[in-house]
Protein backbone atom coordinates (compact mmCIF):
# COMPACT_ATOMS: atom_id res chain seq x y z
CA UNK A 1 0.00 0.00 0.00
CA UNK A 2 1.26 3.46 -0.78
CA UNK A 3 1.65 5.56 2.33
CA UNK A 4 -0.99 7.97 1.10
CA UNK A 5 -2.60 10.22 3.61
CA UNK A 6 -6.24 9.63 4.24
CA UNK A 7 -8.74 7.00 5.16
CA UNK A 8 -9.99 4.17 3.01
CA UNK A 9 -12.46 1.43 3.89
CA UNK A 10 -12.49 -1.91 2.06
CA UNK A 11 -15.96 -3.26 2.53
CA UNK A 12 -18.98 -5.15 1.18
CA UNK A 13 -22.28 -3.32 0.98
CA UNK A 14 -24.48 -5.54 3.14
CA UNK A 15 -21.85 -6.66 5.65
CA UNK A 16 -22.95 -5.79 9.18
CA UNK A 17 -19.27 -5.86 10.18
CA UNK A 18 -18.41 -3.28 7.54
CA UNK A 19 -21.39 -1.22 8.60
CA UNK A 20 -19.99 -0.95 12.10
CA UNK A 21 -16.96 0.82 10.67
CA UNK A 22 -19.09 3.03 8.41
CA UNK A 23 -21.33 4.07 11.29
CA UNK A 24 -18.35 4.87 13.53
CA UNK A 25 -16.72 6.95 10.77
CA UNK A 26 -20.00 8.80 10.17
CA UNK A 27 -20.50 9.51 13.87
CA UNK A 28 -17.02 11.03 13.93
CA UNK A 29 -17.51 12.97 10.72
CA UNK A 30 -14.46 11.39 9.10
CA UNK A 31 -14.01 11.77 5.33
CA UNK A 32 -13.01 8.51 3.73
CA UNK A 33 -12.89 6.63 0.46
CA UNK A 34 -15.23 3.65 0.31
CA UNK A 35 -14.12 0.71 -1.82
CA UNK A 36 -16.64 -2.02 -2.56
CA UNK A 37 -15.03 -5.45 -2.74
CA UNK A 38 -16.19 -8.34 -4.87
CA UNK A 39 -15.91 -11.16 -2.36
CA UNK A 40 -15.74 -13.80 -5.08
CA UNK A 41 -12.81 -11.96 -6.63
CA UNK A 42 -10.91 -10.19 -3.89
CA UNK A 43 -8.73 -7.27 -4.90
CA UNK A 44 -4.93 -7.23 -4.64
CA UNK A 45 -5.31 -4.41 -2.17
CA UNK A 46 -7.54 -6.45 0.15
CA UNK A 47 -5.27 -9.48 -0.02
CA UNK A 48 -2.31 -7.28 0.80
CA UNK A 49 -4.09 -5.30 3.52
CA UNK A 50 -5.50 -8.37 5.28
CA UNK A 51 -3.26 -11.30 4.33
CA UNK A 52 -4.18 -13.28 7.44
CA UNK A 53 -7.96 -13.42 7.01
CA UNK A 54 -8.52 -11.89 3.54
CA UNK A 55 -11.77 -10.43 4.87
CA UNK A 56 -13.55 -7.12 4.94
CA UNK A 57 -13.83 -4.64 6.53
CA UNK A 58 -10.31 -3.26 6.47
CA UNK A 59 -9.67 0.34 7.41
CA UNK A 60 -6.55 1.78 5.79
CA UNK A 61 -5.37 4.91 7.59
CA UNK A 62 -2.40 6.73 6.07
CA UNK A 63 -1.45 3.50 4.34
CA UNK A 64 -1.66 1.33 7.46
CA UNK A 65 -4.36 -1.38 7.61
CA UNK A 66 -6.55 -2.11 10.62
CA UNK A 67 -8.59 -5.33 10.52
CA UNK A 68 -11.49 -6.83 12.49
CA UNK A 69 -14.59 -4.64 12.81
CA UNK A 70 -14.66 -4.04 16.57
CA UNK A 71 -10.93 -3.37 16.61
CA UNK A 72 -11.52 -0.87 13.78
CA UNK A 73 -14.30 0.84 15.79
CA UNK A 74 -12.06 1.15 18.87
CA UNK A 75 -9.28 2.52 16.67
CA UNK A 76 -11.61 5.08 15.07
CA UNK A 77 -12.85 6.09 18.51
CA UNK A 78 -9.30 6.58 19.83
CA UNK A 79 -7.88 8.42 16.82
CA UNK A 80 -10.82 10.78 16.25
CA UNK A 81 -11.34 11.41 19.92
CA UNK A 82 -12.51 15.01 19.58
CA UNK A 83 -16.07 14.11 18.66
CA UNK A 84 -18.84 11.63 19.54
CA UNK A 85 -17.08 9.42 22.12
CA UNK A 86 -18.20 5.85 21.56
CA UNK A 87 -16.72 4.47 24.78
CA UNK A 88 -17.51 5.47 28.36
CA UNK A 89 -14.57 6.97 30.25
CA UNK A 90 -15.00 4.81 33.35
CA UNK A 91 -12.92 1.61 33.11
CA UNK A 92 -15.69 -0.57 34.56
CA UNK A 93 -18.28 0.78 32.11
CA UNK A 94 -15.75 0.27 29.33
CA UNK A 95 -15.26 -3.34 30.35
CA UNK A 96 -19.02 -3.85 30.28
CA UNK A 97 -19.24 -2.25 26.82
CA UNK A 98 -16.45 -4.47 25.50
CA UNK A 99 -18.08 -7.55 27.05
CA UNK A 100 -21.46 -6.95 25.39
CA UNK A 101 -19.99 -5.92 22.04
CA UNK A 102 -17.98 -9.16 22.15
CA UNK A 103 -21.16 -11.07 23.05
CA UNK A 104 -22.90 -9.64 19.98
CA UNK A 105 -19.83 -10.59 17.95
CA UNK A 106 -19.74 -14.15 19.19
CA UNK A 107 -23.44 -14.87 18.95
CA UNK A 108 -25.62 -12.82 16.63
CA UNK A 109 -24.18 -13.43 13.16
CA UNK A 110 -23.60 -17.16 13.64
CA UNK A 111 -27.00 -17.80 15.16
CA UNK A 112 -28.64 -15.61 12.53
CA UNK A 113 -26.94 -17.54 9.75
CA UNK A 114 -28.27 -20.79 11.16
CA UNK A 115 -31.78 -19.36 11.03
CA UNK A 116 -31.72 -19.11 7.25
CA UNK A 117 -29.34 -21.98 6.49
CA UNK A 118 -31.06 -24.70 8.44
CA UNK A 119 -34.47 -26.31 8.53
CA UNK A 120 -36.60 -28.38 10.90
CA UNK A 121 -35.27 -29.15 14.36
CA UNK A 122 -31.91 -27.48 13.81
CA UNK A 123 -33.63 -24.28 12.76
CA UNK A 124 -35.90 -24.47 15.79
CA UNK A 125 -32.87 -24.79 18.04
CA UNK A 126 -31.30 -21.75 16.36
CA UNK A 127 -34.55 -19.83 16.78
CA UNK A 128 -34.64 -20.65 20.49
CA UNK A 129 -31.07 -19.47 20.79
CA UNK A 130 -31.73 -16.23 18.89
CA UNK A 131 -34.67 -15.45 21.17
CA UNK A 132 -32.42 -16.02 24.21
CA UNK A 133 -29.77 -13.75 22.71
CA UNK A 134 -32.28 -10.99 22.01
CA UNK A 135 -33.74 -11.27 25.49
CA UNK A 136 -30.32 -11.12 27.13
CA UNK A 137 -29.55 -7.99 25.12
CA UNK A 138 -32.96 -6.58 26.00
CA UNK A 139 -32.20 -7.08 29.71
CA UNK A 140 -28.88 -5.30 29.18
CA UNK A 141 -30.53 -2.38 27.40
CA UNK A 142 -33.28 -2.05 29.99
CA UNK A 143 -34.98 1.29 29.84
CA UNK A 144 -31.94 3.13 28.56
CA UNK A 145 -32.12 5.12 25.34
CA UNK A 146 -29.07 3.31 23.99
CA UNK A 147 -26.82 0.53 25.27
CA UNK A 148 -24.38 3.36 25.91
CA UNK A 149 -26.94 5.16 28.11
CA UNK A 150 -27.86 8.59 26.86
CA UNK A 151 -25.11 8.47 24.24
CA UNK A 152 -24.91 6.15 21.29
CA UNK A 153 -21.96 3.92 22.08
CA UNK A 154 -19.79 0.91 21.32
CA UNK A 155 -22.42 -1.76 21.91
CA UNK A 156 -24.96 0.20 19.85
CA UNK A 157 -22.48 0.36 16.96
CA UNK A 158 -21.70 -3.34 17.35
CA UNK A 159 -25.32 -4.46 17.30
CA UNK A 160 -27.29 -1.97 15.19
CA UNK A 161 -26.25 -3.31 11.76
CA UNK A 162 -27.97 -6.60 12.62
CA UNK A 163 -31.29 -4.79 13.02
CA UNK A 164 -31.60 -4.66 9.23
CA UNK A 165 -31.40 -8.48 9.35
CA UNK A 166 -34.28 -8.82 11.82
CA UNK A 167 -36.84 -9.04 9.02
CA UNK A 168 -34.84 -11.89 7.44
CA UNK A 169 -34.52 -13.73 10.76
CA UNK A 170 -38.26 -13.27 11.43
CA UNK A 171 -39.29 -14.43 7.99
CA UNK A 172 -37.01 -17.47 7.87
CA UNK A 173 -37.72 -18.68 11.41
CA UNK A 174 -41.24 -17.38 11.91
CA UNK A 175 -41.07 -15.20 14.99
CA UNK A 176 -41.25 -11.52 15.82
CA UNK A 177 -38.42 -9.51 17.34
CA UNK A 178 -40.97 -7.03 18.65
CA UNK A 179 -42.86 -9.93 20.21
CA UNK A 180 -39.89 -11.42 22.05
CA UNK A 181 -37.84 -8.27 22.71
CA UNK A 182 -39.97 -5.11 22.38
CA UNK A 183 -37.35 -2.80 23.89
CA UNK A 184 -34.82 -3.98 21.33
CA UNK A 185 -37.36 -3.29 18.57
CA UNK A 186 -37.88 0.24 19.88
CA UNK A 187 -34.15 0.78 20.29
CA UNK A 188 -33.67 -0.24 16.65
CA UNK A 189 -36.19 2.43 15.57
CA UNK A 190 -34.45 5.06 17.73
CA UNK A 191 -31.11 4.22 16.16
CA UNK A 192 -32.57 4.67 12.69
CA UNK A 193 -33.26 8.30 13.66
CA UNK A 194 -29.50 8.83 13.69
CA UNK A 195 -28.12 9.94 10.35
CA UNK A 196 -25.07 7.67 10.65
CA UNK A 197 -27.32 4.63 10.98
CA UNK A 198 -30.04 5.64 8.50
CA UNK A 199 -27.50 6.33 5.80
CA UNK A 200 -25.60 3.09 6.38
CA UNK A 201 -28.20 0.38 6.86
CA UNK A 202 -30.03 -1.08 3.90
CA UNK A 203 -33.75 -1.64 3.77
CA UNK A 204 -34.55 -4.93 5.52
CA UNK A 205 -36.35 -6.14 2.38
CA UNK A 206 -33.18 -5.62 0.37
CA UNK A 207 -31.20 -7.55 2.99
CA UNK A 208 -33.80 -10.32 2.71
CA UNK A 209 -33.29 -10.41 -1.06
CA UNK A 210 -29.59 -10.94 -0.35
CA UNK A 211 -30.40 -13.72 2.13
CA UNK A 212 -32.56 -15.41 -0.53
CA UNK A 213 -29.67 -15.15 -2.96
CA UNK A 214 -27.40 -16.80 -0.35
CA UNK A 215 -29.96 -19.53 0.28
CA UNK A 216 -30.01 -20.34 -3.44
CA UNK A 217 -26.24 -20.28 -3.54
CA UNK A 218 -26.00 -22.69 -0.61
CA UNK A 219 -28.80 -24.85 -1.96
CA UNK A 220 -31.18 -24.20 0.94
CA UNK A 221 -34.86 -24.54 0.07
CA UNK B 1 -1.28 4.14 44.45
CA UNK B 2 -4.05 1.76 45.43
CA UNK B 3 -6.55 3.30 47.83
CA UNK B 4 -8.87 1.89 50.41
CA UNK B 5 -11.83 -0.10 49.17
CA UNK B 6 -9.64 -1.83 46.63
CA UNK B 7 -10.71 -5.38 47.23
CA UNK B 8 -9.70 -7.69 44.41
CA UNK B 9 -10.85 -11.28 44.07
CA UNK B 10 -10.17 -13.61 41.18
CA UNK B 11 -12.33 -16.62 40.44
CA UNK B 12 -10.13 -19.06 38.61
CA UNK B 13 -8.05 -22.21 38.57
CA UNK B 14 -4.27 -22.58 38.38
CA UNK B 15 -4.13 -24.61 35.12
CA UNK B 16 -6.23 -22.18 33.08
CA UNK B 17 -4.30 -20.00 30.62
CA UNK B 18 -7.15 -17.49 30.71
CA UNK B 19 -6.88 -17.17 34.47
CA UNK B 20 -3.09 -16.93 34.17
CA UNK B 21 -3.48 -13.88 31.93
CA UNK B 22 -5.28 -12.02 34.68
CA UNK B 23 -2.75 -13.09 37.33
CA UNK B 24 0.13 -11.86 35.18
CA UNK B 25 -1.59 -8.50 34.71
CA UNK B 26 -2.23 -8.20 38.46
CA UNK B 27 1.43 -9.09 39.11
CA UNK B 28 2.62 -6.46 36.63
CA UNK B 29 0.67 -3.89 38.58
CA UNK B 30 1.89 -5.35 41.88
CA UNK B 31 -1.65 -5.84 43.11
CA UNK B 32 -2.68 -8.13 45.92
CA UNK B 33 -5.74 -10.26 45.41
CA UNK B 34 -7.66 -13.19 46.83
CA UNK B 35 -7.62 -16.25 44.59
CA UNK B 36 -10.89 -18.17 44.71
CA UNK B 37 -9.88 -21.52 43.30
CA UNK B 38 -12.56 -23.30 41.29
CA UNK B 39 -12.89 -27.08 41.13
CA UNK B 40 -14.50 -29.12 38.38
CA UNK B 41 -17.90 -28.27 39.87
CA UNK B 42 -18.66 -24.60 39.22
CA UNK B 43 -19.18 -22.51 42.33
CA UNK B 44 -22.34 -20.52 43.05
CA UNK B 45 -20.22 -17.37 43.01
CA UNK B 46 -18.95 -18.13 39.50
CA UNK B 47 -22.44 -18.84 38.19
CA UNK B 48 -23.70 -15.64 39.77
CA UNK B 49 -20.77 -13.48 38.64
CA UNK B 50 -20.73 -14.70 35.05
CA UNK B 51 -24.30 -15.74 34.27
CA UNK B 52 -23.81 -15.32 30.52
CA UNK B 53 -20.91 -17.74 29.99
CA UNK B 54 -20.49 -19.36 33.44
CA UNK B 55 -16.74 -19.41 32.84
CA UNK B 56 -13.58 -18.32 34.60
CA UNK B 57 -11.73 -16.04 34.98
CA UNK B 58 -13.94 -13.48 36.69
CA UNK B 59 -12.30 -10.55 38.41
CA UNK B 60 -14.35 -9.11 41.23
CA UNK B 61 -13.22 -5.59 42.05
CA UNK B 62 -14.98 -4.02 45.04
CA UNK B 63 -17.84 -6.43 44.46
CA UNK B 64 -18.20 -5.73 40.72
CA UNK B 65 -17.54 -8.61 38.31
CA UNK B 66 -15.58 -8.31 35.09
CA UNK B 67 -15.50 -11.24 32.64
CA UNK B 68 -13.44 -12.36 29.62
CA UNK B 69 -9.70 -12.62 30.20
CA UNK B 70 -8.38 -9.95 27.84
CA UNK B 71 -11.19 -7.55 28.76
CA UNK B 72 -10.11 -8.03 32.38
CA UNK B 73 -6.46 -7.37 31.43
CA UNK B 74 -7.47 -4.11 29.78
CA UNK B 75 -9.59 -3.18 32.77
CA UNK B 76 -6.63 -3.74 35.08
CA UNK B 77 -4.42 -1.63 32.82
CA UNK B 78 -6.94 1.22 32.71
CA UNK B 79 -7.81 1.18 36.41
CA UNK B 80 -4.33 1.03 37.90
CA UNK B 81 -2.44 3.49 35.78
CA UNK B 82 0.37 4.59 38.06
CA UNK B 83 1.40 1.11 39.16
CA UNK B 84 3.96 -0.56 36.96
CA UNK B 85 4.34 -0.25 33.22
CA UNK B 86 1.47 0.13 30.79
CA UNK B 87 0.18 -3.22 29.54
CA UNK B 88 -1.33 -1.98 26.30
CA UNK B 89 0.79 0.03 23.87
CA UNK B 90 0.21 3.77 24.03
CA UNK B 91 -0.05 4.28 20.26
CA UNK B 92 -3.55 3.66 18.81
CA UNK B 93 -2.24 1.75 15.80
CA UNK B 94 -0.03 -0.45 17.95
CA UNK B 95 -3.04 -1.15 20.15
CA UNK B 96 -5.08 -2.21 17.12
CA UNK B 97 -2.28 -4.57 16.09
CA UNK B 98 -1.99 -6.04 19.60
CA UNK B 99 -5.75 -6.60 19.66
CA UNK B 100 -5.72 -8.15 16.20
CA UNK B 101 -3.09 -10.73 17.09
CA UNK B 102 -4.76 -11.45 20.42
CA UNK B 103 -7.99 -12.21 18.57
CA UNK B 104 -6.03 -14.43 16.17
CA UNK B 105 -4.44 -16.31 19.08
CA UNK B 106 -7.81 -16.80 20.79
CA UNK B 107 -9.30 -18.00 17.54
CA UNK B 108 -6.65 -20.67 16.95
CA UNK B 109 -4.66 -21.75 19.95
CA UNK B 110 -7.20 -22.86 22.59
CA UNK B 111 -8.92 -25.05 19.98
CA UNK B 112 -5.60 -26.53 18.88
CA UNK B 113 -4.76 -27.33 22.50
CA UNK B 114 -8.16 -29.00 23.06
CA UNK B 115 -7.73 -31.08 19.90
CA UNK B 116 -4.23 -32.24 20.80
CA UNK B 117 -4.89 -33.02 24.45
CA UNK B 118 -6.70 -36.36 24.02
CA UNK B 119 -4.60 -37.55 21.09
CA UNK B 120 -2.49 -40.66 21.17
CA UNK B 121 1.21 -40.04 21.65
CA UNK B 122 3.23 -40.16 18.46
CA UNK B 123 0.12 -40.81 16.34
CA UNK B 124 -0.22 -39.59 12.76
CA UNK B 125 -3.13 -37.35 13.66
CA UNK B 126 -1.18 -35.83 16.54
CA UNK B 127 1.72 -35.08 14.17
CA UNK B 128 -0.68 -33.46 11.70
CA UNK B 129 -2.37 -31.35 14.35
CA UNK B 130 1.01 -30.33 15.79
CA UNK B 131 2.13 -29.21 12.33
CA UNK B 132 -0.96 -27.00 12.05
CA UNK B 133 -0.18 -25.41 15.40
CA UNK B 134 3.42 -24.80 14.36
CA UNK B 135 2.15 -23.16 11.16
CA UNK B 136 -0.06 -20.88 13.27
CA UNK B 137 2.94 -20.00 15.42
CA UNK B 138 4.99 -19.27 12.29
CA UNK B 139 2.43 -16.61 11.36
CA UNK B 140 2.73 -15.21 14.87
CA UNK B 141 6.54 -15.31 14.58
CA UNK B 142 6.27 -12.76 11.76
CA UNK B 143 4.09 -10.60 13.96
CA UNK B 144 6.65 -10.93 16.73
CA UNK B 145 9.40 -9.59 14.47
CA UNK B 146 7.26 -6.58 13.59
CA UNK B 147 5.87 -5.84 17.05
CA UNK B 148 9.02 -6.34 19.10
CA UNK B 149 11.22 -4.25 16.78
CA UNK B 150 14.28 -6.10 18.01
CA UNK B 151 13.35 -5.88 21.68
CA UNK B 152 12.63 -8.74 24.07
CA UNK B 153 8.85 -8.87 23.97
CA UNK B 154 5.86 -8.10 21.74
CA UNK B 155 5.34 -5.15 24.06
CA UNK B 156 8.94 -3.95 23.67
CA UNK B 157 11.22 -3.99 26.69
CA UNK B 158 8.58 -5.27 29.02
CA UNK B 159 5.77 -7.78 28.59
CA UNK B 160 2.51 -6.37 27.33
CA UNK B 161 -0.97 -7.31 26.19
CA UNK B 162 0.03 -9.59 23.35
CA UNK B 163 2.82 -11.27 25.34
CA UNK B 164 0.24 -12.12 27.99
CA UNK B 165 -2.25 -13.43 25.43
CA UNK B 166 0.24 -15.81 23.85
CA UNK B 167 2.52 -16.54 26.79
CA UNK B 168 -0.34 -17.85 28.91
CA UNK B 169 -0.72 -20.69 26.39
CA UNK B 170 2.86 -21.89 26.92
CA UNK B 171 2.08 -24.10 29.93
CA UNK B 172 -0.32 -26.21 27.84
CA UNK B 173 1.95 -26.15 24.81
CA UNK B 174 4.88 -27.52 26.80
CA UNK B 175 2.64 -30.08 28.53
CA UNK B 176 1.35 -31.28 25.17
CA UNK B 177 4.88 -31.66 23.81
CA UNK B 178 5.55 -34.06 26.64
CA UNK B 179 2.20 -35.85 26.82
CA UNK B 180 1.58 -36.35 23.14
CA UNK B 181 5.25 -36.62 22.13
CA UNK B 182 5.11 -33.85 19.56
CA UNK B 183 7.34 -30.86 18.85
CA UNK B 184 5.80 -27.42 18.81
CA UNK B 185 8.41 -24.95 20.09
CA UNK B 186 10.84 -25.78 17.30
CA UNK B 187 13.84 -23.45 17.24
CA UNK B 188 14.46 -23.95 13.52
CA UNK B 189 10.91 -22.94 12.62
CA UNK B 190 10.08 -20.24 15.19
CA UNK B 191 13.42 -19.01 16.57
CA UNK B 192 12.12 -15.64 17.72
CA UNK B 193 9.20 -17.14 19.61
CA UNK B 194 11.30 -19.88 21.21
CA UNK B 195 13.71 -17.30 22.68
CA UNK B 196 10.78 -15.09 23.59
CA UNK B 197 9.06 -17.98 25.40
CA UNK B 198 12.11 -18.52 27.60
CA UNK B 199 12.24 -14.84 28.51
CA UNK B 200 8.50 -14.75 29.12
CA UNK B 201 8.48 -17.75 31.45
CA UNK B 202 11.42 -16.30 33.41
CA UNK B 203 9.75 -12.92 33.92
CA UNK B 204 9.00 -11.90 37.51
CA UNK B 205 5.32 -11.40 36.85
CA UNK B 206 5.01 -14.82 35.22
CA UNK B 207 7.24 -17.28 37.05
CA UNK B 208 5.04 -17.99 40.04
CA UNK B 209 1.82 -18.36 38.06
CA UNK B 210 3.20 -20.48 35.20
CA UNK B 211 2.66 -24.10 36.29
CA UNK B 212 5.48 -26.57 35.83
CA UNK B 213 5.15 -28.86 32.86
CA UNK B 214 4.97 -32.06 34.92
CA UNK B 215 2.19 -30.62 37.05
CA UNK B 216 0.27 -29.68 33.90
CA UNK B 217 0.72 -33.19 32.48
CA UNK B 218 -0.69 -34.71 35.69
CA UNK B 219 -3.58 -32.28 35.61
CA UNK B 220 -4.24 -33.11 31.96
CA UNK B 221 -4.69 -36.77 32.83
CA UNK B 222 -7.23 -35.86 35.53
CA UNK B 223 -8.99 -33.47 33.15
CA UNK B 224 -9.24 -36.08 30.41
CA UNK B 225 -10.72 -38.63 32.77
CA UNK B 226 -13.23 -36.12 34.13
CA UNK B 227 -14.22 -35.13 30.60
CA UNK B 228 -14.67 -38.76 29.67
CA UNK B 229 -17.14 -39.34 32.47
CA UNK B 230 -19.17 -36.14 32.74
CA UNK B 231 -21.44 -34.44 30.21
CA UNK B 232 -20.20 -31.15 28.74
CA UNK B 233 -20.56 -28.35 31.29
Helix content of chain B: 55-70%
The N- and C-terminal alpha carbons of chain B lie at a distance of 40 Å
Q: Spans of chain A of 5+ residues with little confidence (pLDDT < 50)?
A: none
Portion in beta strands of chain A: 5-15%
Would you tell me the overall average pLDDT of chain B? 95
Largest interface: A-B, 21 and 21 residues
Report the principal-axis shape of chain A: globular
Q: From the alpha carbons, calculate the radius of gyration of chain B and give it in angstroms.
A: 18 Å
Q: How many β strands of chain A by DSSP?
A: 4
- Structural class of chain A, by secondary structure, is alpha+beta
Question: Could you spell the SSE succession of chain A in H and E letters?
Answer: EHEHEEHHHHHHHHH
GO molecular function (chain B): glutathione transferase activity
Domain GST C-terminal (chain B): 91-219
Pfam families (chain B): GST_C (PF00043), GST_N (PF02798)
Enzyme class (chain B): transferase
Question: What's the layout of helices and strands?
Answer:
The complex is a heterodimer of chains A (221) and B (233).
Chain A: E1 7-11, H1 16-28, E2 33-36, H2 44-49, E3 58-61, E4 64-67, H3 69-79, H4 91-117, H5 120-141, H6 154-159, H7 166-173, H8 177-180, H9 182-192, H10 195-198, H11 204-217
Parallel strand pairs in A: 1-2
Antiparallel strand pairs in A: 1-3, 3-4
Helix pairs in contact in A: 1-3, 4-5
Chain B: E1 8-12, H1 17-28, E2 34-37, H2 44-49, E3 58-61, E4 64-67, H3 69-79, H4 92-116, H5 124-148, H6 161-167, H7 170-179, H8 191-202, H9 204-207, H10 213-229
Parallel strand pairs in B: 1-2
Antiparallel strand pairs in B: 1-3, 3-4
Helix pairs in contact in B: 1-3, 4-5, 4-6, 7-10
Family (chain A): Belongs to the GST superfamily.
Catalytic activity (chain A): RX + glutathione = an S-substituted glutathione + a halide anion + H(+)
Keywords (chain A): Transferase
Notes on the structure:
The complex is a heterodimer of chains A (221) and B (233). With 221 residues, chain A is α+β, with helices and mostly antiparallel strands. Chain A is 57% helix and 8% strand. Chain A is built from 11 helices and 4 strands. Chain A has helices spanning 16-28, 44-49, 69-79, 91-117, 120-141, 154-159, 166-173, 177-180, 182-192, 195-198, 204-217, and strands spanning 7-11, 33-36, 58-61, 64-67. In chain A, strands 2-1-3-4 form a 4-stranded mixed sheet, with helices on one face. In chain A, a hairpin with a 2-residue loop joins strand 3 and strand 4. The radius of gyration of chain A is 17 Å and the shape is globular. Chain B has 233 residues and is an alpha+beta fold. Helix content of chain B is 55%, strand content 7%. Chain B is built from 10 helices and 4 strands, in the order βαβαββαααααααα. Chain B has helices at residues 17-28, 44-49, 69-79, 92-116, 124-148, 161-167, 170-179, 191-202, 204-207, 213-229, and strands at residues 8-12, 34-37, 58-61, 64-67. Chain B has a 4-stranded mixed sheet with strand order 2-1-3-4. In chain B, strand 3 and strand 4 (64-67) form a beta hairpin. In chain B, helix 4 (92-116) packs parallel to helix 6 (161-167). The mean pLDDT of chain B is 95. Chain A binds chain B through residues 52, 61, 64, 66-68, 71-72, 74-75, 78-79, 91-92, 94-95, 98-99, 102-103, 136, and chain B through 52, 61, 64, 66-68, 71-72, 74-75, 78-79, 92-93, 95-96, 99-100, 103-104, 139. Chain A: It catalyses: RX + glutathione = an S-substituted glutathione + a halide anion + H(+). Chain A: This is Probable glutathione S-transferase GSTU1.
Amino acid sequence: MASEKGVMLLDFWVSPFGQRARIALAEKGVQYEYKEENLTEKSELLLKANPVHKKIPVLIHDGKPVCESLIIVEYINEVWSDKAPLMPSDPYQKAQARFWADFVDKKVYDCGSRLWKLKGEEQQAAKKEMIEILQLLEAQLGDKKYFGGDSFGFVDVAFVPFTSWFYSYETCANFSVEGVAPKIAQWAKRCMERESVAKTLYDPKKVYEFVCFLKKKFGVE
Amino acid sequence: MTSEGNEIKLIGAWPSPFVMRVRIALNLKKLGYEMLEETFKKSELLLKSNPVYKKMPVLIHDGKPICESMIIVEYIDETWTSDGASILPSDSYDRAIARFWTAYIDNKIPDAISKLRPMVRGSVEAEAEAEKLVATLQVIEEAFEKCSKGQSFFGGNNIGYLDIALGSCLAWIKALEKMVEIKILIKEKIPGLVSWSERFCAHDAVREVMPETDKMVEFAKVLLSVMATTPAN
